[in-house]
Structure formats: C-alpha cells, structure tokens
Amino acid sequence: MFTTIKKNLTRFADHLIDSPCIAVCIMHTETGLCKGCFRTIDEIAGWPEMTGDEKRAVIAQAAARKQAARP
Hints:
This protein is mostly helical. Helix content is 54%, strand content 0%. It has one domain.
C-alpha cells in the first residue's frame, strides 16, 4: 500500500515540473530544435509522459544546446 502511495506521489510531483516552453514554437529546419526552448519535437511531444528525472535531463540538455548556440 505504501509503495503505491509513494509511486502516485512521485508521479504527481513529476507533473509539477514546468515545461521550458517560452511560447516561441518554431522548429529550426536544420537542427530540428525549437527556436524557443531548444527541445526536439520528440522531447516536446513526450513531455507529459516523462518522469521527473527525464524532464530534468531534457531541461539540462536544452540549456546546454541554448548555450552552445550562442555566438
């Protein structure tokens, strides 16, 4: 019973992680990344089903992509 409660609480907490979307939803044709949040289309589409760890990894990867794209 406690395992089920913990699993449900973890899943609920995972949904509280905000998306890095900044409402500039334009996919760059060459890189395949969103010009606003620097995520791939698969990362964007899969966001609602990702675990918290997966979301945090995507946020970190998108931040690194954004940093690398700076001139």
